[in-house]
Structure formats: structure tokens, C-alpha cells
């Protein structure tokens, strides 16, 4: 009797699936059989959610690649996941990437919704990404948008036609974006004790990405995060409740006092690393104030957002810069990130050797390069050392004051010291 019942249910679900996709199946079973097979084995097919429900009925638009199955297509049936995703850093993915494509001429009007709510002229975020703007369309699509389109693409994690949750519960699904020199969280986790326990005993003993960052299946992956993507600490009003959330997550396995102490150690590593980074940044700005960068910003292709001026914040480039800026890019984007993220992911090798040691050697390299630039007077091939004169010092101080690096009082004091030496 039970076998007959199961057979009837399967037959009914097959009939429901076939009916939902009836107009599409005859052609697509032949032209895209894998997609059809994946859909037929999905929860969507069993629920009678056919092709038109997600792709629409305008076949010409679909063929032209204009019928995007974005997040809002999924939202009506998946409201809880939609709202959680929108509240998370994944929900800001396109703000930091495609948010700046309004500067390009080849974007479609419909893409305004990446930055704006429907009918709202005020952007949800004014963050732009200069590095994306410097890339070719092909590199931008593959090298940038495959990860930075997560805001409007549920299939970034879930795949397109399959709905099996074991796909997204596997930490490998996170690795394609969260790996590499600038944010190797995957590698850090994999080679930490957490990763070792996960590989040998499973996720009940060894936590994975989803255990800590998607507790109880939430789509808000930013729970417990106390800093920006660039490692800048959040204000206390935002950081303190986030830290309490993370301690609560860690307490599923650890004593709360232990979790709090380890996270605070990570905070200290972050603060110490940021101080090293700031020291290096000031060296570069001092060269710029003295006109000694080679080449100076005014003598190279303009920055996509800031024109021909020095940029060392999150919009800094790795191309069309001086050599010392290239060293700083590695220091900030790779080594600082590895140090800090390594500390929070409990990976000693990434925190120290891949991170802290590299960070400190970067500072040595940057200081040495600055000394060479000063000795050369900023001119290629100049054989004699050129000691900076009083006029150069005064010019550098004036530039520092004008960009806000010195207060009026500090400027007057330092200027007085230089003038005193001239007497």
C-alpha cells in the first residue's frame, strides 16, 4: 500500500513539473538537457514552479540575455531570506562594485536599481570602485562582477536550476570569492584547527563558514562583524552589539569568556597592524608633498574618480602608480588583510608569517624606497644626492597643511623650526 502511495505521489509531482514547464520542455530537453534535468530534480519542479515563473514569457528577451533572474524574482517566495540578505554585506556587494558604473556609457537603464530603490533618486550607497573602472569589460565581468554581483544574484551561491541545500551548506560554495591574496578566509579556515576538525569529524564538531557566519541558516552573513570590508573598526554603537552576537555564536562550542578574550586579541592585532599601515601611508604622502613620487600623479593617467591626485584609501589602484604606491597597495590590500583576518580566523601562520611579518617588511621596503627617492631628488637617473633645502621643506609643510595633515598650530610651529634653521 505504501509503495503504491509513494508511486502515486512521484507520478503526481512529475505531472505537476511537466505542466509547469510545458511550453519550454520540447525544445530545451534537446538544446539544454542538463538544465532541464537539474530543474526536474529540484524543489521548484516539485512545487510546480516552471520556467516562466522565473524567466518570464518574453522569449526574445530571454534569448538576448535581458531577462535576468535577479533577487527580486526570488523574493516573493523567499521573503525571509530576501530580507536577511538585504541586511547583510552580501546585500551591499554591487554597491561597492557596480555602484560606480553610472560613469560608464555602456550600462543599461534598468541597472539603476543596483544603487537605487524603485522610483528613488537617492542612492542606497555612494561607494564606488575605481579598480573596476580601470578594467576592460571582459575583465570586469569575469574578474570583478562574478563576485560583486552577489547583491542581485541568488544563484551566486545557490546555482541556477538546482535547489539542493547541500550545495550551499558546503563551505566550497564560499571559496570562489573568499580566497586569494586579498581575503584568503577559505585558506585560513581550511588550515586552522576549525578546518581540521571539520575535515576529520564533520561540521558538528568542526565549524565551517556557515556555522559561524550563517547561524541557524540566516542569510545575513554580517552578523557579528565589527569592521568594514577594508578593516576599519565600526563605531562602538554598532560594534558592541555585533561583538555580543559573535560571542554568542562562539559560545555554542566555547566558554563566553574564552571567545571574548580571543576576539579582543584580534582587535588588538587589528589596531597594531593599522598603526603600521598608517606609518607607511604617511611616508608616501610626505613624498607627494615634496613632489618626489615617480611619477607624480599629475604626470600619469588620471585616477577614474579622483583625477590626477594621490589616492591611498580604499580606491587606490595597482596600475598607473609609482613603485612605492604599488608596494603600499600590496601592504594594505594583501598583507594587512591577511594579518587581521588571520587573527579573527584563528590561523597563526596567516596572522604572523603571511601577514604580520610581510606587513613589517613592507614598511622597511617603503622607507627604503622613500630614502632613494629623496636622494635622487625625485629625478630618474640623477647621480648626485640632492639634500632637501629650506624651500622644499616649506613647500612640503604647506602641502601637508592644505590637505589637512597639519593643524594651523602645528603648521606654524613646524614652519617656525625651518625658518629658524635658515637664520
Automatic annotation (TrEMBL):
Keywords: Signal
Database matches in SUPFAM superfamilies: Multiheme cytochromes
Signal peptide bounds: 1-20
Biased composition (Basic and acidic residues): 370-383
Membrane-traversing stretches: none
Record has Signal as a keyword: yes
Domain of life from the UniProt record: Bacteria
Keyword Signal listed: yes
Region (Disordered): 370-392
Gene Ontology MF term list: oxidoreductase activity
PANTHER family noted in UniProt: C-TYPE POLYHEME CYTOCHROME OMCC, DISSIMILATORY SULFITE REDUCTASE SIRA
Name of the molecule in the record: Uncharacterized protein
Amino acid at each position: 500500500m505504501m509503495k503504491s502511495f509513494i508511486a502515486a505521489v512521484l507520478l503526481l509531482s512529475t505531472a505537476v513539473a511537466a505542466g509547469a514547464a510545458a511550453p519550454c520542455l520540447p525544445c530545451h530537453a534537446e538544446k539544454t538537457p542538463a538544465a532541464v534535468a537539474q530543474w526536474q530534480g529540484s524543489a521548484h519542479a516539485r512545487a510546480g514552479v516552471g520556467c516562466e515563473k522565473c524567466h518570464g514569457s518574453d522569449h526574445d528577451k530571454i534569448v538576448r540575455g535581458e531577462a535576468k533572474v535577479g533577487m527580486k524574482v526570488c523574493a516573493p517566495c523567499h521573503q525571509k531570506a530576501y530580507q536577511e540578505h538585504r541586511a547583510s554585506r552580501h546585500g551591499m556587494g554591487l554597491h561597492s562594485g557596480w555602484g560606480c558604473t553610472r560613469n560608464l556609457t555602456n550600462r543599461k537603464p534598468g541597472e539603476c536599481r543596483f544603487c537605487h530603490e524603485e522610483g528613488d533618486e537617492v542612492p542606497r550607497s555612494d561607494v564606488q570602485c575605481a579598480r573596476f573602472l580601470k578594467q576592460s569589460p571582459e575583465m570586469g565581468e569575469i574578474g570583478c562582477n562574478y563576485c560583486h554581483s552577489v547583491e542581485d544574484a541568488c544563484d551566486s551561491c545557490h546555482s541556477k536550476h538546482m535547489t539542493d541545500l547541500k550545495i550551499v551548506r558546503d563551505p566550497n560554495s564560499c571559496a570562489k570569492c573568499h580566497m586569494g591574496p586579498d581575503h584568503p578566509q577559505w585558506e585560513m579556515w581550511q588550515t586552522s584547527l576549525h578546518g581540521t576538525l571539520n575535515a576529520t569529524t564533520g561540521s558538528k564538531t568542526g565549524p565551517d563558514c556557515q556555522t559561524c557566519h550563517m547561524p541557524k541558516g540566516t542569510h545575513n552573513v554580517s552578523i557579528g562583524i565589527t569592521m568594514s570590508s577594508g578593516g576599519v573598526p565600526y563605531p562602538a554603537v554598532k560594534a558592541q552589539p555585533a561583538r555580543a552576537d559573535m560571542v554568542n555564536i562562539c559560545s555554542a562550542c566555547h566558554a563566553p569568556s574564552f571567545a571574548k578574550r580571543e576576539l579582543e586579541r584580534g582587535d588588538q592585532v587589528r589596531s597594531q597592524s593599522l598603526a603600521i599601515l598608517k606609518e607607511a601611508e604617511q611616508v608616501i604622502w610626505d613624498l607627494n608633498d615634496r613632489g618626489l613620487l615617480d611619477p607624480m600623479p599629475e604626470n600619469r593617467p588620471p585616477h577614474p574618480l579622483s583625477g590626477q591626485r594621490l589616492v591611498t584609501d580604499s580606491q587606490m589602484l595597482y596600475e598607473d602608480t609609482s613603485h612605492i604606491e604599488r608596494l603600499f597597495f600590496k601592504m594594505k590590500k594583501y598583507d594587512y588583510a591577511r594579518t587581521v583576518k588571520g587573527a579573527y580566523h584563528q590561523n597563526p601562520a596567516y596572522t604572523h608569517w603571511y601577514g604580520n611579518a610581510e606587513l613589517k617588511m613592507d614598511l622597511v621596503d617603503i622607507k627604503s624606497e622613500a630614502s632613494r627617492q629623496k636622494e635622487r631628488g625625485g629625478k630618474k637617473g640623477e647621480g648626485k644626492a640632492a639634500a632637501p633645502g629650506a624651500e622644499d621643506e616649506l613647500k612640503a609643510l604647506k602641502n601637508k597643511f592644505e590637505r589637512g595633515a597639519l593643524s594651523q598650530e602645528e603648521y606654524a610651529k613646524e614652519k617656525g623650526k625651518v625658518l629658524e634653521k635658515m637664520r
